Batch of 2 targets.
Target 1
Amino acid sequence: MWLSRAVPVRYLRSYRRPQKQPWMTYPVVFYSDSSEKKGKVAPLQETRMRDRFTLYARGGEGGSGCSSARKTRADRYGKPDGGNGGRGGDVILECTHAVWDFSGLQPHIKGGKAGHGTSKNRIGNRGEDKVLQVPIGTVIHIQEGEIPSQVENESPKDLDPWELPGTLVEDPASEDNHNIDQDIMAESVQVAAEKESVTRHLGTPKEFDLEDYEGEIDQIRYNVAELTQQGQRIIIARGGQGGLGSVCATRYVRGTKFAKSTIRQRNLRIIEDDVDDDEDDDDNDDRSSIKSGSLGSEAVLILELKSIADVGLVGMPNAGKSTLLGALSRAKPRVGHYAFTTLRPNLGNVNYDDFSMTVADIPGLIKGAHQNRGLGHNFLRHIERTKVLAYVVDLASGLDGCRGVTPWQQLRDLVMELEYHEEGLSDRSSLIVANKIDENGADERLEELERRVKGVKIYPVCAVLEEGVAELKDGLKMLVDGAGEPSERLKLKNICVD
Ligand SMILES: Nc1nc2c(ncn2[C@@H]2O[C@H](COP(=O)(O)OP(=O)(O)OP(=O)(O)O)[C@@H](O)[C@H]2O)c(=O)[nH]1
């Protein structure tokens, strides 16, 4: 149809529309001057990071087995030749650098349905696997369902991500193993999971959407698995087994109560009289149950992201953390002269000739964050795995009669908030970045800071002008490398605020 393709407006104006004929129908197209009305482009940071996600997963249904018999002139009753149904598709989580959070995930996901078996002993197609990409550092809690029983063999892992005894099946494809093993395994895994589950409080409602989990909080098994390496995969819901086709069903039932019914079935064709009707119905049910494919397993998982970074930058809002991350790495976080510019952690890579490390810029923390003041301290879990903490303080805060918190008080508040979030969180190698050294009066502040805070190195930096950044990089490398003194950690008792 005309006007179906984008045509520049200036051509459109000179274009004379043909007179409408009764047989013509035109699509209604509205053109607007794009320079006048620009679409609102939301900055990346305005979208809150989706770092918790509830996922309902179900494996695909297995295909049904086929009942068919191949008849020949020599054998008028025929031989069974129905193939088995295919296995349903699995739902798999794959760990990748390509995604940043869980915003691309669908909450309900189902593995592909398998094909049915057909005659000539042809097995049904396997259901399509659904692979969901999750960011590196994804932690899995299970709210409902079995702990998945298999870790894919090709996953390039050093560590078994389920880290639970008895979760690997020797040959999960083996039908003999399947039913027996699953029962035993489910039992042992459940016991192990219960033992290993971390009994921790969910914290404030802001930290966890309690209404979603009401009444089920007790059942959640925490930290059952972690995805920490690129390409690592785990199956969270397995596809159902395919039903047995007539070929396998005949073999399977030999020696069982089905055998009788199979033989009887043959006899039935010859003498169709002396079989009790009720019993026959039962047998038919049994036969159809082995013929139909089973449903896939179901699981309700809570995915939680804990970024993996070597260094965590913690500080009050406006201390200059994002500016510093930009100076240390090629990351381009949003910088603003107002508090809480950073709404989600930003990651940057700091490269050396022979070494590289990841630095996470954590949104600003304020006193009382553990009571949900400011942005709360929910995002602090992103530094739970960092090796080194870099406390960024604003040397100019409170100078020139302006309101503000002194650097030593900032440090004290930060350490306390970390400890409120998780006991011992501040107990790791640390250093202090004394930022905004270019401001008036900052030098004296630095001297006082050095007098008041002991036990850790202090690096004076001007993040905007990238002064002192090279020395800071060396200091961070020393700590991340493990060459730092074990005593280099910031302790409350070493901060004098009076
Ligand atoms: N004078 C001076 N200003 C700086 C320096 N570093 C950062 N700033 C300014 O401080 C303000 C806050 O910087 P950010 O990097 O956004 O601070 P932040 O700690 O990430 O802030 P939040 O996102 O609120 O946590 C900006 O206006 C920066 O330009 C510095 O070394 N000297």
Target 2
Amino acid sequence: MRTPLMAGNWKMNKTVDEAVAMVNELKDLVADAEDVDVAICAPAVDLYAMNEVVGDTNIDLGAQNMYYKESGAYTAELSPSMIKSVGCKYAIIGHSERREIFGETDELLNLKLKTAFANDIVPILCIGEKLSEREAGTHFDRVKFQLAANLSGVEADDVKNMVLAYEPLWAIGTGKTATPEQAEEIIKFIRETVEEMYDADTAEAVRIQYGGSVKPHNVKEIMAQPNIDGALVGGASLEAESFSKIVKFK
Ligand SMILES: O=C[C@H](O)COP(=O)(O)O
């Protein structure tokens, strides 16, 4: 049985004071959440102070990005040990904004994934198609290609412990959610592709989230789908009240 993961991705939002205030509020609101994992992937500058607040609560922390080298002349990048030192359990790898705006390639993301596994960081690997690909009917090919390229050389045991996030680009920040049936159809396909690439046990174990305009009012029907194991939430994770409602979707 897979435990759902509700992860907030704050993107480039919240100063340290704002971040601390929000997790202080959130920790009380989600303290009684059962059978769900909770994470906030915050801007790097916020994580140290947030880590002091989340302590032994049920909120885990994640980074929004991570480089694949341990140290060196890589201005502005964050190493795995740096993000672990501020309490990160998770790291988002390959968010579409990193791919599209910052030109991150599938090869680079493959290196980042392998580095995450080597450092006991749970990667949340984002995959998903653009609107033009959905309209052309090539969205299945797109996610299959991303899985093959990003997971190249990755062992089954690592895949079992990672998180995949299916995020159609046309649903991110647009208020336009994939219907639960659309999300289930492609997430089921992603699980079947993992089975083809690895085996049935790996496909059964890997958690696959949906991301793209998940809100308190639509989370329940999304989570009712058998293959959807949580959500990667942008806008609605910025307010403690709305994110807590998503965490406590039942
Ligand atoms: O990482 C989160 C996704 O990009 C979804 O963002 P959104 O919930 O604001 O659409």
